[in-house]
Amino acid sequence: MDADALLASLRRRFVLITALNWLPNGIGMAVLIVLMDSRGLPLGVTGLIVALYSLTTVLLELPTGGLADVISRRGVLAVSAGLGSLAFCGLAVAASAWQFGVLYVLLGMARALSSGPAEAWYVDSVKAVRPHADIRKGLAASQTAGAVSLGAGTIGGGALALAPVFPDSGAVTALSAPMLLSALLNVVLLIVVVTGMRETARPSDGGGFGALLAGVPRTIASGAALGVRDRALGRLLTTALPIGIAVSSVELLTPGRLLDVTGDSGASAGAYGVITAIGFAANAVGSAASGLLASLLGGGGARTAVAGTLVSALGLVALFTTGSLEGTAAVAAAAGGYALMFLGLGLRGPVHAELTHHRVDSGRRATVISVQSLLMQGGGSLAALTLPLLAGAWSIPGAWLVAGLILAASAALYLGAGTPPFAGRRAPDRVVEQGTAEPSAAAGHAARAALPRPPR
């Protein structure tokens, strides 16, 4: 297989894995809160269970990223798929708070394990074939597939719960159907990961599996330190904080705002479902159009990231303007602002990922992705603690304006981030024949000492 054909094959597998990774979550999460309510769990208990999921994800984010870099991207993602399948199977029949709590911990573990391995595997596999190959197209296609899968899964999961597949009462009910389908799709993901993510074995330094595990803390520390030493990478990672604030602001405050303007809980819930689907669609469109915008702006990833960030901030400002509207006009304006914000995030996403990967060596790639994910969650937590207070003291649209201004200011972090530290003379393609193991991030551990240090 020649280099171009192999690169196309890698891109197709990466997109498929990303779609299968997000589709079960969209299907299952669409009805999980309703499922717990139908099993008699009070809203307060449901909130604690969801918080347990978030806590599990945060605590395991960095360790699982280091594990993927040190041991195996394929192995870590396969374990994630297995845990996801087990968790969704259990959720289909769970009946008590402690059962839901345990299963949500498993979901959190699966989520943390899935954060970064596929993307790190794709980038390293592409660079192993052609060191200066364009990774933007694959990253954009992957993010488009993820957004489409989430949107389709959310709609499909809700529709499946309404279908007469199971009875309305008993251990397995109509709300169990999306859980069982999600479990099945995780099994499909597991098979695709095991057969499609080919990688070489990790170097053991003669110490066996225990020595590999001992290298995880070192890899985590090294990845985090890289973001400090490389100032441009540090700025790129820092942009995750305002992104987390922005996303959390709309997720937290939009339902309440819709209830205010409609005056009816059923109407507001229906409107929010439609607006959420619009957001997923806008994100997919933005991801797909990211490369075109980059070409129009002269091919600069940093300029495209700035433009996408400002478009997202404009969406939050548009949400602020809904403060003077009521009824249908307010709902329509909220949908427009929501779509604009997620369109900008889609435009920004692929080029931001490309800029980040150009500044990270193979052996720390998944770890740095986990650092970025953790920072985004930190931004979301900060928003969850402060924006509701601001909304109460001022207004929900006012809180959106503050989030939009913070996001707009973060566009300055992309200045000077467009020059990769590992740029150099173009290396020849390294073609791997179909059916053999493809080089992957494993080579990074052996070669890391030969790589130049990122500039301070």
Give a structural overview.
It is a single chain. By secondary structure, this protein is an all-alpha fold. It is 76% helix and 0% strand. Helix 7 runs antiparallel to helix 12. The longest helix is centred in the middle third of the chain and has 32 residues. It is globular. The C terminus is likely disordered.
Largest sheet, strands/sense/barrel: none
Mean pLDDT: 82
The number of helices is: 17
What are the segments in which pLDDT stays under 50 over at least 5 consecutive residues?
422-456
> What fraction, in percent, of the residue positions are helical?
over 70%
- Overall body shape: globular
* Topology pattern, helix = H, strand = E: HHHHHHHHHHHHHHHHH
Oligomerization state = single chain
